[in-house]
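Throughout this review, each integer encodes one residue's backbone shape. One record appears below.

===
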Amino acid sequence: MEISEKRIIGSLILLVGVTFFSIALYSGQLTLIAEIVESIFEPAIAGIP
């Protein structure tokens, strides 16, 4: 895969992420997403002294 193809794929993934973020922000679901992310990273944070 050439570098230009990788850039296009990376740009599309970034665009999808920004789109889902804006939809979550518009629909008021951002707090739910923040809680899900927090619960995912909670075990990793608990191990830090």
